[in-house]
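Standup notes
- HV: blocked on the assembly model, inputs below
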Amino acid sequence: MRDMPASDLSALLLAWYDRNARVMPWRVPPEQKMAGVRPDPYRVWLSEVMLQQTTVAAVRAYFLRFTERWPTVADLAAAEDAEVMGEWAGLGYYARARNLLACARAVVRDHGGVFPATREGLLGLPGIGPYTAAAIAAIAHDEAAVVVDGNVERVMARLWRVEAPLPGAKAELTRLAGLLTPEDRPGDHAQAVMDLGATICTPRNPACGICPWRGACRAEAEGVQASLPRKAAKAAKPVREGVLWIARRADGAWLVERRAERGLLGGMLGFAGSGWDGGGGDAPLSLPWQEIGEVRHTFTHFHLVLRVLVGRAGMEAVPERGMFLPGDAFRPADLPTVMRKAHDLAKGALSPP
DNA sequence: CATGCGTGGTT
DNA sequence: TAACCAAGCAT
């Protein structure tokens, strides 16, 4: 059992997957697959990009809204930037949304509206890296690509008891994942390892008692599974501070600005702010601003505290930054979360005149 | 190869 | 509750 051939391990896993595969909107159910139905590369791609560093629970609703609104890659490619950024609002890592659009347009412009079918061809597209290219090639086209995400890293580290810490151990874990990748059903294999990692071989308290690889797992044999994979310690998050100015005009329009394409919250709608390094900054408009409170929000690598100031502007007001967006065109759901929090705080003080 | 880049759920 | 974590990519 301990030194079972890779093909046997793969067979055990696929048998487990056939009984335990999670149902998701972007997956083709087993019975349809048996009947020859292939996954739509557009839907596979969209789901994989949304799932980058993001939970299945968070993605589900976004995926359904996107596919309802833009059923094909051509539909998405024809969308306005602001529509897509607004629909992505709240999902995070907004560079994904910008790359999503760039990728859709590249597929239409350079590939006749058809996604490249190979890992190699997919790798050249915006927002598609080693993981996503392999996942699409395997799931949508049954290419025996080696799919390595955080789940696979964890499962391999435990199965083979790899003690070396990430990210250094990545190459070795990829090699081990490759040994296990079958020529037959590589897409199901990839999804099976990820389902195993998400439901049984979980980070904290793995359910080794019901694992299809029980008896073959070297970490479990030694009782060290919960401590693998090892990871380098992360740096503490500093606290940054800033000011946010939220103005509303007499007709109900909100003063907003489109953030720069690159960097934090790039391309998203927001309110005018100072820099976020404690330094000052100028208000976007000369008004009798009133401070109403603060918003706290934590990003990937820092905590942010924003003092929120509100002001009422007359119809003649001409802002130095940003623009007044009519009340009926302003949708809080289009805002990234920190801006939505600020809006929640400010809306009471700025209720329509 | 290290860093920047969101968010919400779990422990 | 602060820390950790999730189907990574671009630079």
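- HV (later): unblocked. Chain A has a mean pLDDT of 95. Residues 6-227 of chain A form a domain with the Endonuclease III; domain 1 fold (CATH 1.10.340.30).
- Next: hand off to the docking folks.
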